[in-house]
Amino acid sequence: MEYGNFTEIMETSDRRIRETSLTYIRPMMRQIDWRDRLICIKGGRGTGKTTLMLQHIRQTFSGGEALYVSLDNLWFETHSLTDVVTYHVENGGTHLFMDEVHYLDHWQTLVKNLNDNFQKLSVVYSGSSALKIESAGGDLSRRQVQYHMPGLSFREYLALEEGLTQEAFSLESLLRDHVSLAEEISAKTKVLPAFRRYLRKGYYPFYKEVFGGYEDRIVQVINQVLESDYPAVEPVTYATVQKIRKMLMILAENAPQTPNMQRLYEQLETDRNQGLKMLYALERAELLHLLSSESASLKNMSRPQKIYCNNTNMMHALVHNANVGCERETFFLNQLLAAGHSAHYPKEGDFLIDGRYLFEVGGRNKSFEQIKDLPDSFLAVDDTEIGRGNRIPLWMFGFLY
């Protein structure tokens, strides 16, 4: 093969690697075992998957061993990825990093073939959180190690903004030692003003690049997910995409209460089955969180009890004058789920975490009245720097990852 055929894609890779900042590197860098031959990094758009891969390349490789390609690049409309990889390997390449893999037709089979045909090549790829790896035609689920990348936690935001060094703590240690932990952190920073800023502008790492129009950028991310990412994963029509967009806006404006779903389906001119399919597509794409009871969650495609935007930054981008109570619950749910915990809708209280811990979320004057006699029950209270007993400051749940 002639090198000239691939000059553009090679130069793009070199430039992207060279221009990537190493000023702040997220903890996930240490959590990934980069020695595995096939690694998948899933996550919502804008959460930092690309930056993580480029930082790893810049930190680890000095020559041409690693190649980075983004498969939404129009270059691949007229060029073969397999040809590029073949050239890369024949010229000493040992690692391939592929971004936006869902933009490639039959991507599952292609990744499988790369894994089979290039035995000395390590492949890392990223894709939409909506990718269905388990049912993929290429049978990748048993071949690869998967990681999920959420947006910035409140802890990571403080590290990025103020250089605050604080290891994440487990939920159990938070429930047990929250007073001493809060005292330690509060001595280093003005935590409540920072928390208020984070709720509006701090979940997506690109907030550092956007001085004005951050909420407009989030809307652009949402549009790209709905108009490009989702159709690349599922065979949907333009009309269906428009219905999903309308559903998202209606649900965001009503969050956290679930509206009359039958009426919603009528508004969208769809039936229950198609409506639920669209609803769960929004959850897979990390635009919504659906909260169901433990019994309901065992049934596929059931109607959720409550619906939230994925994160508070997205909520403020979609809803003007968002309800503060909804903001608090959205933050709590987002951080717990991102830290790997399960959440269900309980008979009493707001959230049942890991099937054991019961939480009410509210302002500083929130009382225990609803859950006072229940075991393992706690309040997550806003506008509170340091808690007491089973009253835990809401901001502290942003230190779980």
**pLDDT average, as an integer?**
92
Largest sheet: 5 strands, parallel
Number of strands: 12
Q: Shape, please? A: globular
Task: Kindly report how far apart the N and C termini lie.
Answer: 46 Å
The share of residues in extended strands comes to 5-15%
- Rg over CA atoms, rounded to whole Å, is 22 Å
Topology as H/E string?
A: HHEHEHEHEEHHHHHHHEHEHHEEEEE
**Unreliable segments (pLDDT under 50, ≥5 consecutive)?**
none
The total number of structural domains is: 2
Q: Structural class, from helix and strand content?
A: alpha/beta
Q: What fraction, in percent, of the residue positions are helical? A: 40-55%
Figure out the total of helices: 15
Strand order of the largest sheet: 2-3-4-1-5
